[in-house]
UniProtKB/TrEMBL annotation:
Residues 8-151 form the NADPH-dependent FMN reductase-like domain. Pfam families: FMN_red. InterPro entries: Flavoprotein-like_sf, FMN_Rdtase-like_dom, NAD(P)H-dep_reductase. It comes from the Bacteria. Transmembrane segments: none annotated. It comes from Streptomyces macrolidinus. This is NAD(P)H-dependent oxidoreductase.
Amino acid sequence: MPGERPLHVLGIAASARKNSTSGAALDVVLARAAELGCRTKAIRLAELRLPFCDGDKTAPWPEYPAVAVLRRAVSRAHAVVLATPEYHGGMSGALKNALDLLDIPHARGKVFAGVSALGGRSNSNALNQLRTSVRWLHGWMLPDQVAIPDARSAHLDGRFQDPLVTERLTQLADALTRAARALALPVAPDHPQGRRE
């Protein structure tokens, strides 16, 4: 709608592997969100130097400036896409640690979407773990989700072999954008959670 402020959609890629399936899937979701008029940003955890969470979710970690970068990016987003490989039946340790470094004020009221890439058959183990963590952070997890089986052969050069996968990722972006628009609340410009890049 004319005069609407654009939504900010953040993607967090959890895989440490270059050209990963989950990273390629995240790119599809963010590209579609951009087509829908959103401002998008991707954080790739492999490029951040984050400490292991010690249980203090508000610690400033001055020796690890990437913690502030992560927290600020989540705080400024209206919606967040979490894209993870599934390792041993769960989300990647890097993503769990990143979520553990966040606190409720960073994520409260944000809409989250989950994507997982699996080495074998499709299941929802990692996605269910994402739902639990997001709920504890007081975020809103979309009912829509995408699990991509046989990840190593699922895509080539960032393009998915099965067009249904791309279609589902596009639909996820559509649902995320609709939900974020519905839940986005105006925030005072001087509020730390309301500053926009």
